[in-house]
Design goal:
disordered C terminus, 10 helices, homodimer, disordered N terminus, mainly alpha, OHCU_decarboxylase_sf (chains A, B), 2-oxo-4-hydroxy-4-carboxy-5-ureidoimidazoline decarboxylase activity (chains A, B), 211 residues, UraD-like
Chain lengths: 211, 211
């Protein structure tokens, strides 16, 4: 029986994605070994769809469907090619589907963080941006802004937190809260892509994380 | 702070979805109360996107993106209308996206079941079909057929198991293994819709599960 849905005991390690559970589980629900090891594109191209979704299923937050669709486009010539297919899938969706992607994201410094329900990638990113160590007043301020943003746009505020400091987050949130909805949808999707680019770069060897 | 992403302590109960973790968690990673209570369409239409994705995020297996996109189409007139929007989203995807949906499904009586990594809905369905109590020979036979199917079509065999007995599963698998790929993609998506219809019917009051 081929191992189509689990990469345990194989040399390729996952991004240690989690749907908020311990121990970490892949987007297909498989337990995963901790830690991340880089891989080259030949290894990526040799993956069956189960392995591919396990490894890349959270490149777009909580949207393993997108990685599962991108697998159809293999072989990939490299990181940029792989990234191109993820982004092309996002761009081809109708606006409701693009908003759907955003709605699969957690708030920054929000309820999911407080409850330990973030994916491993999101926790790492929010932690790296200092959002896990906010004071009560900062958290409250962000919660208020997040709520206003959700009420205005119908999706949560998404920002590539790794590329910003904790001070920039409420400032950027307050600024984007004033944008026209169509412009803001584009801005939010651009952040989704920045996050995806960084997560992909983490998974592939020899590619520095682009800023 | 509005409760946009959690239905805990609210009258509407979720389908107790799980990404394979205990305690059960929603598609957005929130812990969920156990059990399922029915709801009417007015309640559905009053949900913010966080609640909606928590409740309907696994109508299409491990594809909360689809529920999150469908929320844009509210208000819904009833179960059929809600179902129509889920199915329209699936139908509008390119073939790679439709295959992506299939690739988010587990094998029947496969690795995810053995490891306790099924979603709550999938476990209930496979259990109801008797697939959790197969003998070793039956499991091996299914595993072989599942592997052949995956190798031939590039996605796992999907069947609305609740509508079939355990004897029908390997028979149907062996039959569909012989189908032309384009026909089989259509057949598999029809099964995804049957599963989605049953899951939606479970969540709404007064609607018998259509067969």
């Amino acid at each position: 029986m081929p191992s189509c849905c689990c990469i345990k005991n194989k040399p390729v390690r996952s991004a240690n994605s989690s749907w908020g559970a311990e121990p970490p589980r892949s987007p297909r629900g498989e337990p995963r070994p901790a830690g991340t090891a880089a891989m080259d594109i030949e290894k990526v191209n040799s993956m069956d769809f189960g392995e591919f979704v396990d490894v890349f299923g959270n490149v777009i937050e909580r949207c393993p469907l997108i990685a599962a669709a991108v697998w159809s486009q293999r072989p990939f010539s490299g990181l940029e090619d792989l990234e191109k297919h993820f982004f092309a899938f996002i761009d081809a969706l109708p606006p409701s589907g693009q908003e759907g992607i955003l709605r699969c994201h957690p708030d920054l410094a929000g309820r999911e963080l407080l409850r330990g329900a973030l994916t491993a990638e999101s926790l790492r990113e929010q932690s790296g941006a200092g959002l896990t160590s906010l004071g009560a007043a900062e958290r409250l301020r962000l919660a208020e802004l997040n709520a206003q943003y959700r009420a205005r746009f119908g999706f949560p505020f998404v920002l590539a937190a790794r590329l910003r400091g904790r001070e920039a987050v409420p400032r950027e949130l307050a600024r984007r809260l004033q944008c026209p909805p169509a412009q803001e949808l584009r801005a939010a999707l651009a952040e989704v892509k920045k996050i995806g680019r960084l997560r992909l770069a983490d998974l592939l060897a020899g590619h520095p994380a682009p800023r």
